[in-house]
Amino acid sequence: MNEKNNVFVTQPLLPPLEEFIPYLQKIWDNKILTNCGPFHQQLESALCEYLGLEHIALFTNGTIALVTALQALRITGEVITTPYSFVATAHSLLWNGIKPVFVDIDPRTFNLDPAKIEAAITPQTTAIVPVHCYGHPCDVEAIQKIANNYNLKIIYDAAHAFGVKDTRGSILRHGDLSVLSFHATKVFNTFEGGAIVCPNAQIKHHIDNLKNFGIVDEVTVVAPGINGKMSEINAAFGLLQLQHMDRAWARRKEIDTLYREQLAGLRGIQCLPDTGEIMPNYSYFPILVQSEYPIARDDLYQKLKDEGIYSRRYFYPLISDFPMYRGLASAQRSNLPVASDVTTKVLCLPIYPALSHQEQLCIIKSIREF
Ligand SMILES: *Cc1c(COP(=O)(O)O)cnc(C)c1O
């Protein structure tokens, strides 16, 4: 691939500009730019319908939504979480003065391993923050059972899990709250954005209050809230984007299928297993570069980069290896053998609707070359 044809691991879904103009016109006409205006409300309803959920509170981004979700449930003390995620998962705990306790991941799903959670619970533990990594659902039942036994809350970091369904509906219905990100790199984006999926109207009301400074009316402030509101421009873009989602998914699915076919049986390259009865969202295409592959993961990463193919090492380094976490007892590699191994082998390949068939064949050829 030449310089003009660089391919990245993801590219934002951008509908034709002319389709966005009428939305902008409306904002200019009614002069409501933010503060939960008409597009904000429309997007909340449209997302509930599209995802099969009852209550969603939109946010300015996923990280502020995570911070606010922890506030809303008054989580304190220690929280069990995964080291194998984007750094915002653990940062949201530090922003609430909470001590993260890292627990290792399951080698099949790269999600928090429920079998290892109980040993990490102390009298200070108040919640579990698991991540549906790459949109593959956590073992929600096992995690719920532990939470029930120890009276813990569960907040899912569902930043990767937009649109993922199991046989009974959206996986975002699990736990006490689920948090989405609509960042430009995610399957569904609003440039920047996020949301909290709420189980009932009272909790949504409380969260809506928290995302608006805790203001009730002109003279009443009831909580130390934050400014987490999604603006009208972002909400309008989300409404437009929703109309393109089904087509985008169909294309993502084709890309996923071709990678699986073409990389199957390739020595030293391992794809994540199919998710069975789960309806996935094809948001990422991770492979593991095992020791049987002729070159190491970082060398393959560099070789692809030299050819204009920008894969990403999601998630490397582990969150627990960053300076603000590595002093914790739970951050030691000996406590996280699976995550420590996977982080040295994983590579996410380009997957996005605008990736052409030709470009994908180039990527596959490059990996098969040995
Ligand atoms: C993207 C992401 C976030 C943060 O979302 P922003 O909208 O970028 O703030 C949090 N957790 C995970 C797992 C993510 O991938």
Plain-language structure description:
The structure is a single chain. The protein is an alpha/beta fold. The protein folds into two domains: 17-242, Aspartate Aminotransferase, domain 2; 245-369, Alpha-Beta Complex (Aspartate Aminotransferase, domain 1). 34% of the residues lie in helices and 16% in strands. It is built from eleven helices and 16 strands. It has helices at 17-30, 38-51, 62-72, 88-94, 140-150, 201-210, 232-242, 245-263, 297-306, 337-342, 357-368; strands spanning 7-8, 55-59, 78-81, 99-102, 125-129, 153-157, 165-166, 169-170, 177-181, 194-198, 215-217, 220-221, 269-271, 285-289, 309-310, 346-349. It has a seven-stranded mixed β-sheet, sandwiched between helices. β11 and β12 form a beta hairpin. α1 (17-30) packs antiparallel against α7, α3 packs across α4 and α3 (62-72) crosses α6 (201-210). The longest helix is centred in the C-terminal third of the chain and has 19 residues, at 245-263. The chain starts with 6 loop residues before the first strand and ends with a helix. The model has no long low-confidence stretch (mean pLDDT 96). The protein binds pyridoxal-5'-phosphate. Residues 61-63, 85-86, 88-89, 131, 157, 159-160, 181, 183, 194 line the site of pyridoxal-5'-phosphate.
CATH class of the largest domain: Alpha Beta
Bound molecules: pyridoxal-5'-phosphate
- How much helicity do the residues have? 25-40%
**CATH homologous superfamily annotation of the largest domain:** Type I PLP-dependent aspartate aminotransferase-like (Major domain)
Biggest beta sheet summary:
7 strands, mixed
Provide the succession of SSEs.
EHHEHEHEEHEEEEEHEEHHEEHEHEH
Order of the strands making up the biggest sheet:
2-10-9-6-5-3-4
Average pLDDT confidence is: 96
- Report how far apart the termini are: 18 Å
Pairing-aware structural class of the strands and helices?
A: alpha/beta
CATH-scheme architecture of the largest domain:
3-Layer(aba) Sandwich
Shape: globular
**Which spans of ≥5 residues are poorly predicted at pLDDT below 50?**
none
- Total count of domains: 2
CATH fold field value of the largest domain: Aspartate Aminotransferase, domain 2
Compute the CA-based radius of gyration. 21 Å
